Amino acid sequence: PVIPSYISSVIENATPSLLTLTYNLTLANIVPAASAFTVLVNNVARTVTGISVSGTKVQLTLSSPVVYGDVVTVAYTKPASNPLQTSTGGQAASITAQPVTNNVSSVIPVYVSSVIENATPSLLTLTYNLTLANIVPAASAFTVLVNNVARTVTGISVSGTKVQLTLESPVVYGDVVTVAYTKPASNPLQTSTGDQAASITAQSVTNNIVSETLYEVQMNIYPNPAQDILNISIQYPNNSSIEEIPNSSSIIRFIDLSGKVVSEKSLDPGVKEIQIPINLRSGIYIVQMISDGLTVATNKLIVAH
């Protein structure tokens, strides 16, 4: 009888627990004992829990899946009973440890979003799409800007899909916050299998801090999108005017999406309707009204020239 020859072995990304051996001839549906096969993963034995034979393929089910980067070998020792064979009785020979192609791909954790909640104004939480190992990078790996000014990170914790950064001082209502991460050489953010999160450039952070001022006002801007002139209509609480708000000194501030203040205009006492010439590039901006050092109104402006 013609003897079937071993050709190759592979583990595919879609089935990381399945090791497939290929022979050059169709095999009979005769299944050897699992002890006939020796699978090593990174030089450690991995138990074979199931075997199937179909066509030219022998599929071994492993006790646990292989991951990206694992070095795998497989060996076959021809048993006395039920050896691999063709329908005409040609028996496959034993093979020593053969390299297995590992096609399991890397699963890199991906950044999803960031937020600062009202109850914890000094805590910035980043969310990833995969569970992270409890490996904590240095604080220097993160850059937090508040209104385009660096805010020091004094503490870091990693749990589940969350990375929490403790800031040296709390964020307040209306602050524009961004966060960036530069993957460090040691202790980068990673999964339990060692897949490392990539660096991220400055990302917008959702600021859920609620205004504490009693003098929050309503600010309407139009047209929006704007081109050359922006009209701003201000309604003060209880129909009061700006001079009735104690110690008030108000400005209109324009901030781009990177957190940079690009323009400011002081408000005259008591003003309720103003026009401001637009000298900004096309894009999206945050318009804030600042009174007595507090943000009392916020709107989004689109500039389209």
Could you describe the 3D structure shown?
Helices cover 0% and strands 46% of the residues. It contains no helices and 23 strands. It is mainly beta and 305 residues long. A hairpin with a 6-residue loop joins β17 and β18. Residues 239-247 have low confidence and may be disordered. The N and C termini lie far apart (82 Å). It has strands at 6-11, 18-23, 37-41, 44-45, 48-54, 57-62, 72-76, 95-102, 111-116, 123-128, 142-146, 149-150, 153-159, 162-167, 177-181, 200-207, 218-222, 229-235, 250-256, 261-266, 273-277, 283-291, 294-303.
Kindly summarize this structure in a few lines.
With 305 residues, the chain is mainly β. It is built from no helices and 23 strands. The strands form 4 sheets. The protein has an 8-stranded mixed beta sheet, with no helix packed on it.
